[in-house]
């Protein structure tokens, strides 16, 4: 950790600590900065804009949220680091880079763990998801609520993918997520982890052949402009989470903590509603924009190919923990 950044983080923590709980209002003058990796017109953009409105309303204007879109203040891993250090106040991020910060969360990124959106949302909003939120404060992060990125699908510019055998040898951009990288290698993919901010250019220049993301992200990031083939693998459900710097959270009064938590819940409603809407429209929209879409792929074939890594994940996370999520109703 860079000494200057450490000193700045310590200074922020000291000011807040000296000010004490309830001193938040004194610090309320400066808007709280919130950064996301996606555009304003996206499933994350509608969420953080709803969050800002709700915080303003529920704190009678004492707290203002200033939103930054399209990774203006850095990509997702940098945002999480910034919130941890106190150089950024808030972010809404996918779980992509989170295993590096809160390893327990990595279990959620296991491929084909969730049956559908209803299952995933129930797990995250239920005791399993809420328990995972309690793992963040020890890392100087406060997780206000689980949001959503969506079920991820494969795209590429080389050839149609109709089965796992068609993935062999494709150079694919992945998130900086060890679970994804291990699983995709099992498909014979050549994984290239990189920040989302670099993906469009890397696809455009052919540095990588493909990538994988939810339909909502593929449309909001206009990846149809640099990708020809889309396969609806739904191979991973990608959660997202709203994070706040712990020192800033600790400075809030109990009433304001409730206001921020309630605002986060409203943000999640907007986020999920946008994803449901995008999911309804995306395939037709992307076809009109020239993509070739393989809709009805045999997911069991993709899942079967991952048997060796499932054994490893079972050891790593405990098969009972995985089964508890898989069988949750
Ligand atoms: O969270 O990095 C990714 O592919 C993510 O899906 C994107 O940043 C949205």
Describe the structure.
- The protein has 329 residues and is of the alpha/beta class.
- Helices cover 46% and strands 19% of the residues.
- It has 14 helices and 9 strands.
- Strands 1, 2, 3, 4, 7, 8 and 9 form a 7-stranded mixed β-sheet that branches. Strands 5-6 form a two-stranded parallel sheet.
- Helix 3 runs antiparallel to helix 11 (254-288).
- It is globular, with a radius of gyration of 20 Å.
- The model has no long low-confidence stretch (mean pLDDT 94).
- (2R,3R)-2,3,4-trihydroxybutanoic acid is lined by residues 37-38, 76, 94, 96, 149, 175, 196, 213, 217, 238.
Topology (elements, then pairings):
Elements: H1 3-19, H2 24-27, E1 32-35, H3 43-58, E2 65-68, H4 76-85, E3 90-94, H5 117-125, H6 127-133, E4 141-156, E5 171-174, H7 178-186, E6 190-193, H8 199-204, E7 210-214, H9 215-220, E8 229-245, H10 246-250, H11 254-288, E9 292-294, H12 299-305, H13 307-317, H14 319-326
Parallel strand pairs: 1-2, 1-3, 5-6, 8-9
Antiparallel strand pairs: 3-8, 4-7, 4-8
Bound molecules: (2R,3R)-2,3,4-trihydroxybutanoic acid.
